[in-house]
Amino acid sequence: MPKLWNETIETHRREVRHAILNTTAALVAERGLLNVTMSQIAEQTGIGRATLYKYFQDVESILRAWHGERIAHHLAHLIAVRDRATGPGERLEAVLEGFADISRRSRGHFDADLMAVLHRDEQVTGAQAQVQDMIRDLVADAAQAGEVRDDVEPGELATFCVHALIAAGNLSSEDAVRRLVAVTLAGLRPAD
Amino acid sequence: MPKLWNETIETHRREVRHAILNTTAALVAERGLLNVTMSQIAEQTGIGRATLYKYFQDVESILRAWHGERIAHHLAHLIAVRDRATGPGERLEAVLEGFADISRRSRGHFDADLMAVLHRDEQVTGAQAQVQDMIRDLVADAAQAGEVRDDVEPGELATFCVHALIAAGNLSSEDAVRRLVAVTLAGLRPAD
Fold first, then answer.
1. Minimal Cα distance from B191: which residue of A?
2. What interface predicted TM-score (ipTM) does this complex get?
3. A162 shares contact with chain B (CB less than 8 Å)
4. Residue B68 is part of which domain span?
5. Does the beta carbon of A112 lie under 8 angstroms from any beta carbon of chain B?
6. What's the pLDDT at B192?
7. A78 and A153: one domain?
8. Per-residue model confidence (pLDDT) at position B113
9. Hey, which of A165, B1, B68, B139 has its CA 20 to 30 A from B35?
10. Distance CA B68, CA A7 (A)
11. In total, how many domains does chain B have?
12. pLDDT (tens digit per residue) in B142-165
């Protein structure tokens, strides 16, 4: 087959996959994890059931793939946010704000069953570790610049930040998220 | 029946219930949630299967009861810690330390399946709300005494504290827990 034809197939596959992920996420958000079937997903995506099964074996694996894409997107966003800021203190603040925003927007979308499934997922644990490592490096840089306390290890401070900012999932306004970031940063300030 | 006899039965029932809860918790810790059956629990508790079913309908409900008792115990502990301390700042610090200790000791006991089951549990949500309300009231008292910032609502600060201190579940030493509490308290200090 000519190269162009392969590329067309590859593009098509990506588009179908993308459509399956989005359809499933929307259906689960609407009906709950336990009320969505592979047949409904195929119908709503506009493909045959047999085609759907060529891509995914069950609803859970579709959701994991969907979640994996969101996580990759969030990590890329945080890296971009970090690289736009200048100076160690600003970089740290920008990433903490970005992470708090993600926490706020990620919560309350889905039901408890889905959260239970996703939180057992290794890709979630892996992504949390990546975010925590990124924050740890930024904390270390800021500590070296004298903008963050150096009496506690950067790794421990990063653990503190990630947990504190997950609280953004319970906050109702963007202003509250800004205040949460300010309080978290106050915890990081050099001791007098 | 005479009153004494009723009391004896009541005491016996409580003891059997207690034995069931502890046996189940130990079995689940050892084998994992999905590998424990009602028959094993009855056998290890030293009672008949029929008796066990008079107390609980399945393994999950035993675990919920066990977890409920632990939560009640933790809340009572935090109230005692609070009431032993004098002065608003000390009370807040003592309760934050107590909560961080509980977070540290509660983690890593069980497998992910069990955590998923328990976290869908309303009694967990209710207990978290009670802890958060207690911390909110202590924060409000300390803010009035000028020992905590008053530019952020006590409720938001309490949400920050609870989430930040859950990080203790990932810390390996008591010293690290002390440092986490210190960093969290630093976030609460009045802005200059």
1. A186
2. 0.78
3. yes
4. 58-192
5. yes
6. 66
7. yes
8. 55
9. B68
10. 57
11. 2
12. 999 999 999 999 999 999 999 999
- The answer on A85 and A24 residing in a single domain is no
Instruction: Examine the domain organization and report whether A83 and A108 are in the same domain.
Output: yes
Q: Averaged over B57-75, what is the pLDDT?
A: 88
Domain harbouring B17, CATH code: 1.10.10.60
Quick check: A180 contacting B, CB < 8 Å?
A: yes
User: What percent of chain B has a predicted confidence (pLDDT) above 70?
Assistant: 89
Pick A5 or B174 by higher pLDDT: B174
User: Do both A148 and A177 map to the same domain?
Assistant: yes
Q: Which residues of A touch B103 (CB under 8 A)?
A: none
- Region A98-120: mean pLDDT is 68
Q: What is the pLDDT of residues A135-173, one digit of tens each?
A: 999 999 999 999 999 999 999 999 999 999 988 988 889
Report d(CA A88, CA B35) in Å as an integer.
50
Same domain, A172 and A79: yes
**Which one of A120, A176, A187 has the shortest CB-CB distance to B116?**
A120
Residues B66 and B39 in one domain: no
Which whole-number Å values give the CA distances from B164 to A177, A188, B76, B167, in the listed order? 14, 12, 21, 6
Say which residues have a Cβ less than 8 Å from residue A167's Cβ, sequence separation at least 6: A103, A180, B159, B160, B162, B163, B164
**Is pLDDT at B23 greater than 80 in this prediction?**
yes
- Within 8 A of B186 by CB-CB distance, chain A residues are 149, 186-189, 191
Co-location of B156 and B125 in the same domain: yes
Q: Which among B39, B57, B75 is the end of a domain?
A: B57
